[in-house]
Structure formats: C-alpha cells, structure tokens
Amino acid sequence: MKKLMAVGALVAAVSVLTGCSSLDRTKEESLNRAAGIEVTETPQGVGVRLPEKVLFDFDKATLRADSGPAIARSAVLIMRSKKPVLVEGHTDNIGERDYNMKLSQARAEVVARALADKGVPASRVNYKGFAFDRPVASNDSDEGRARNRRTEIVIIGESVDTVMGK
C-alpha cells in the first residue's frame, strides 16, 4: 500500500512539475472569461489582455477593489512558465501624449507590483508604458477608445499551449 501511495505521489509531482499537460483548454478559457481577461498567442509570446474596466477607474492608476480575480488569474498563467514577462500599459488618444505616457507607465508598474504580490518573481517582470502609440482599435469611437485603454502582459517567447493546455 505504501508503495502504491508513493507511486501516486510521484505521478502527482511529475504532473505538477510538467505544468500544463493536464490542463483543459475549455476550462482555462472559461476561467479567463470569468476574470475578464483575454489570452492570445502573439508574435512575441503569450498575450494576456486586461481591459481598463477590469483593473482601473477612468484616468486612474490605482487598482480597483474588484480587480483581484484578473490579477490572480494572470499570475496563475504566468507561473506556468519560467520565461520573462513584460507588462505594457496603453491608453486611448484623448489628452496630451506626455500625460498618457505617465498614466500608462504608472498602470503597468501597478500591475507588475500586484503580480509580484501574487508570487510572480519580480526579477522576471519588466514594465513599460506606451501611451496611445499602439492602438488595437480605432480611437474614432467610444468602443475603440475603450479597447485601447488596457494593460497587456506578454510572456515573452512562450506558447499558449504551455499556459492554457491543448
């Protein structure tokens, strides 16, 4: 019986160490939706998009009280990899560029610190603000501007399969 339990413990340990081999992609996607984040494969690696409304109030760089699930879920995904992470802050094009650069930088820094508080080694995480230099939608509509106000996390050189399963 002890031998069987030892083998079971070994199998469990190997499963944990190998990470995502037992991950269910459908379940992972559901968990992401529930936390309000989007995960995609990008040319740089895995992108985790956190919309402004999930993390911040308009024109603020302080995390909202209800942003915990998005930060916690992002940390879980990041911890499935050992690769470096870049937290990017983005804004819409309303207002002066210098102001938006400071806001986007402050938001990226706040998210990087929150990830560290959730156990992501700070040595793996860099952050940078991009103001409105990298829009993902047109800034000509309210919907487009809302999509552009975001924080993105890039797990550099990683694959979606590693962090989300197949």
Automatic annotation (TrEMBL):
The keyword Protein biosynthesis does not apply. GO terms for cellular component: cell outer membrane. It comes from Caballeronia concitans. The keyword Membrane applies. Keywords: Cell outer membrane, Membrane. This is OmpA family protein. It comes from the Bacteria. Residues 43-159 form the OmpA-like domain. Signal peptide: none annotated. Its main location: membrane. InterPro entries: Bact_OuterMem_StrucFunc, OMP_bac, OmpA-like, OmpA-like_sf. It is found in: Cell outer membrane. PANTHER family: LIPOPROTEIN YIAD-RELATED, STATOR ELEMENT OF FLAGELLAR MOTOR COMPLEX. Gene3D superfamilies: OmpA-like domain.
